Amino acid sequence: MEITVTVNGTAHTADVEPRMLLVDFIRTTLTLTGTHIGCDTTSCGVCTVLLDNTPVKSCTVFAVQANGRSLTTVEGLKQNGELHPIQAAFKEAHGLQCGYCTPAMMLVGSKLIEENPSPTEDEVRWAISGNLCRCTGYVNIVKSIQLAGEMVAAGGEEATE
Amino acid sequence: MTTTHHHEPITTAEVGGVGHSRRRVEDDRLIQGKGNYVDDIVLPGMLHMELVRSPLAHAKINSIDTSAAEAVEGVVAVVTGEMLAGYNLAWMPTLSGDTQAVLATDAVRFQGQEVAAVVATSPYAAKDGADMVMVDYEPLDPIVSPQQGLEPDAPVIRTDLEDKADNIAYEWDTGDEAAVEAAFAQADRIIELETHYPRSHPSPLETCGCVADVDGVTGQVTIYMTSQAPHAHRTVLALVAGLPEQNIRIISPDIGGGFGNKVPVYPGYVVATAASLVLGVPVKWVEDRTSNLISTGFGRDYYMKGQLGVTNEGKILGLRVDMLSDQGAFYADAQPTKVKAGLFHIVTGSYDYPAAYVKTKGVYTNKAPGGVAYRCSFRVTEASYLIERLVQNAAYDLGMDPAEIRRRNFIQPDQFPYTSPTGFIYDSGDYEKALDLALDMAGYNELRQEQAMLREQGRLMGIGLASFTEVVGAGPSEDYDILGLKMTDAAELRIHPTGKAILKLAVRSQGQGHETTFAQIVAEELGIPAADVKVIEGDTDNTPYGLGTYASRSTPTAGAATSIISRKLRDKGRKLAAHLLEASEEDIEWEVGRYYVKGSPDSSVTIQDVAFAAYTNHPREIEGGLEGVHYYDPPNMTYPFGSYIVVVDLDPGTGEWKVRRMIAVDDCGVRINPMIVDGQIQGGLTEGFAMSNMQWITFDEAGNCIGSNFMDYLIPTAWETPRFELGETVTPSPHHPIGAKGVGESATVGSPAAYVNAVIDALAHLGVRNIDMPVLPDRVWQAIQDHS
User: Fold this and answer.
1) Mean pLDDT over residues A7-26, rounded?
2) pLDDT on residue B7
3) B680 flagged as catalytic
4) For residue B33, which residues of chain A lie inside 8 Å, CB to CB?
5) pLDDT digits (tens, 9 = 90+) for A27-76
6) What is the domain count for chain B?
7) Which end of chain B lies in a sparser environment, N or C, as judged by fewer CB atoms within 10 Å?
8) Rama region for B621: left / alpha / beta (φ>0; ψ in -120 to 50; rest)
9) Do B39 and A94 touch (CB under 8 A)?
10) Among chain B residues, CA nearest to A136
11) Are residues B220 and B232 in the same domain?
12) Is B508 a catalytic residue?
């Protein structure tokens, strides 16, 4: 089937098998490998992307379901050569170790602070509760998202050392 | 020995040596989706492989029909064990010296065992093909526990082994049984605990996989592989496949978490390599999650019986441990070859007593092989858990406070180096200091008062302690090897003419931040800014030899090697400095980043000046260049320790317990990058919580794995994960060049006992002394009913 999906602002048209999962379309067809695969059962969340600006687990969406819609992946976070505050904050607050869950965590976090730039710890933990991390114990992921919110509220300034 | 709370950096923030919370170099690519994990690698002409796995735990294979699979669109080849046998590849050695089937030929011995492989033009086609491989199985009775495996009429699982008449994988003991009997004769009480440390799975979020690329013309074999130990894996592959080692290149790219799961050699790697060899094109194999959970290295699964002889005053006199370990179908523990139960004999813990005896028996069962050190230095987790549970129970039986009984038995600071009754030589420690800090942070006395008050109201709250000692950094060459390979590790350092350096290491980061922290060690030793030091790992063609990253050994071994090679280059630089400063070498002094003439500090050259001279202006008698390699053979293991306190609130109506507070004081010696150390501790505390609370790989009577996906095998989310309060003491390792000990696993090792002890503490007044992990609400509820 032919589908057209706007990915990180650019329209892509491709012929895909009806059974192709969105995550495979992103990783294989578009070669955007920042979106990862971790569990195949919608449990771990490392495949999370924003579909029409809403987080979805792309292992549980068919590529054809994204036809005519807009997709943001981790590769789309950086704008005009500038890191998104969520990216700067994850580095500053040590929000990642192996980095495998990180793109998804950042996308979910970016969506949260867009709606609520000053989330409480509980609000952050609830927002990322569909995303697993095995390295960090979530402590610094929570801090990173809160820091990004502060940075956005302060006008998207670069993180300071 | 000094114990301090902080190690003040001697370098500036710009240089970024030891003690600076330098932000991570790795992050720049990882936060932009530019990491390069195995599944991200695409090579021209690459095919995809899927493994066909056994649905049964134990069965004879009558026949395998591949014709329907071969007819599936996109399928290029189907590989069976019979075909591999033609290359002598149907079986391979395990890291414990047993053999393991690559693809089963005679029988399947666990659910999920690899039976055939389908190679196709896409992953979807490979899965389609795998569904069409028809295997005729004749079911056999499965053995689903070690106790069952020892029954006299139990079927023998390893019929492939000549003359094997039972299911015993190994038997091993250490310590002095007679001394323990004598000690027990003097004891007022023998405290007993029988408990199961259940089977768990490391489950890094990236599963295992590889891309094997065999060049049919040159014979070059390049394997991109999820490997915590690329050099060891190259040697093993050379031996298994009979390939010339210089033609094998293992590239371990970014790794999405390891935790021990990526130490063993798995059949998939071997089959993909064989398929690439035969087909002449690259072959990719990446597991799905179920495959990862049901077939790759699990952790734990020890049935432990501990006996602690104590006096009425709470003095420990001796320890006896009997264990049964569930090894699965092949004995594939990843551990030093000479110690069959890993480093379990550290079980005597942080306490000073003269007698201990440990006896263990490993049993084959119809379960996946493994026994990897899941975020653990070879069974140290089980050991720490048992002794900390026993000591806590002893306190209840003696009517003592759990903190006080520990205090009365701690090895004292002036006793180090301390030889334990099982032969370890503890390098350093100050256990009481760590405990006191934890008690202080917790407000322990107030918590006990609150507990008593709540108890009067019928409400249950528990306070669990654990004062653990680890043994990490394997290890001295006299005692530690894996299949004969000594556990030394190397660092190679080259300083270029402009003073910028490349450091190459045999270890392989899986998230620990090596690219950041090992550069800090060079910065500390040479004053070259860490930002000017590039760290390269994970490519056997371009790094020196060593056994890899697991068991918290990178800092104790490769970290020490980095320090020593830096010092060797600094010594060579002294000769060059003398030449440049027209002084004699004896008169050259060093301070971070520069050499100067004794008595005239203004007459100096920087390390960068010296590096430039090494290539542009060196006298004939000094060899050019500023480069070297050091293989580090540790004189001893390192012994990180800590004290943890967990406070739980428990609902007697449902058995549910919630962690109110988790206080963790860690002493891992000198902290290279405090930010990264704290991050590792937070991660470890979470995995400890997971094991005590939910993570559990279990099996039904037929040997079906319960826990074969993330809906059945539970991993804590941010919502369930407790909040942590961290504290630190610093007791440097006396034998490590920078006093560091390794920290990646401390919290996983130390914390399960603290969580479980907290639940037991809430119920101790009822007489409850044990609930097996995971401490599920129904088990808690049942324990309350049994003691009411």
Assistant:
1) 98
2) 66
3) no
4) 32-35, 73-75, 103
5) 999 999 999 999 989 999 999 999 999 999 999 999 999 999 999 999 99
6) 3
7) C
8) alpha
9) no
10) B683
11) yes
12) no
Query: Each residue of B130-158: pLDDT tens digit?
Result: 999 999 999 999 999 999 999 999 999 99
Plot region of B432 (φ>0 → left; ψ -120 to 50 → alpha; else → beta): alpha
CB neighbours of residue A4 within 10 Å: 12
- By residue range, what is the domain housing residue B530? 27-35+489-632
Each residue's pLDDT tens digit, A97-106? 999 999 999 9
Is the pLDDT at B376 greater than 60? The verdict is: yes
B511 inside 8 A of chain A by CB: yes
| Contact: A98, B718; criterion CB under 8 Å | no
**Residues B255, B510: contact at Cβ < 8 Å?**
yes
* Residue B154 domain flag: no
Sign of the alpha-carbon torsion through B278, B281, B286, B287: negative
Substitution target from A98, A144, A158 for chain B, most B beta carbons within 10 A: A98
In this complex, do A99 and B687 lie within 8 Å of one another by their Cβ atoms? no
Torsion of CA B248, B253, B257, B262, to 10 degrees: -10
Q: Which of A41, A73, A97 sits opposite B33 (nearest CB)?
A: A73
The answer to whether residue A156 scores a pLDDT higher than 70 is no
Distance between CA A150 and CA B341 in Å, rounded?
A: 50
Any alpha helices (H) in B443-551, and if so which ranges? 444-456, 514-526
Minimal-distance CA residue of chain B relative to A89: B31
**Does B724 contact A at CB distance below 8 Å?**
yes
> What's the rounded Cα separation, in Å, for the pair A115 and B285?
41
Q: Percent of chain B having pLDDT more than 70?
A: 99
Q: Each residue of B529-584: pLDDT tens digit? A: 999 999 999 999 999 999 999 999 999 999 999 999 999 999 999 999 999 999 99
B290 and B373 assigned to the same domain: no
Question: Does the beta-carbon distance from A138 to B721 stay under 8 Å?
Answer: yes
On whether residue B159 sits in a domain, the answer given is no
Residue B459 catalytic? no
**CA B473 → CA A64, B425, B490, B650, B733, distances in Å?**
51, 13, 13, 38, 12
Maximum CA pair distance of chain A?
49
The CA-CA-CA angle for residues B363, B368, B369, to 5°, reads: 60
- Chain A interface, best mutation among B37, B205, B745, by max A CB count within 10 A: B205
Residue A53, C-beta contacts closer than 8 angstroms, at least 6 positions apart: A70, A72, A111
* Confidence band of A159 (pLDDT split at 50, 70, 90): very low
Q: Which residues of A touch B664 (CB under 8 A)?
A: none
Say if CB B255 and CB B77 are below 8 A apart: no
Q: Are residues B660 and B622 in the same domain?
A: no
Per-residue pLDDT, B1: 36
Using CA atoms, how far apart are residues B213 and B33, in angstroms rounded to an integer? 25
Our CA-based measurement puts residue B374 at a distance from the nearest CA of chain A, in whole angstroms, of 12
Cis peptide before B417 (omega within 30 of 0): yes
Q: Note whether A132 and B711 are within 8 A (CB).
A: no
Given B37, B679, B723, which is nearest A97 (Cβ)? B679
- Choose, from B375, B389, B494, B671, the residue flagged as catalytic: B375
Mean pLDDT (chain B, rounded): 96
Tell me whether residues B682 and A34 touch, CB distance under 8 A: no
Nearest CA in chain B to A37: B206
pLDDT at B239: 85
Asked if B376 is an active-site residue, the reply is yes
Backbone phi, psi, residue A141, to 5°: -70, -45
- In this structure, the answer to whether residues B513 and B433 fall within a common structural domain is no
From the candidates B12, B23, B31, which should be mutated to test the interface with A, based on the most A CB atoms within 10 A?
A: B31
Question: Going from the N-terminus, what domains does chain A have, and what CATH number goes with each?
Answer: 2-76 (3.10.20.30), 85-153 (1.10.150.120)
User: Which pTM does this prediction carry?
Assistant: 0.97
Give the chain A residue whose CA is nearest to the CA of B679.
A136
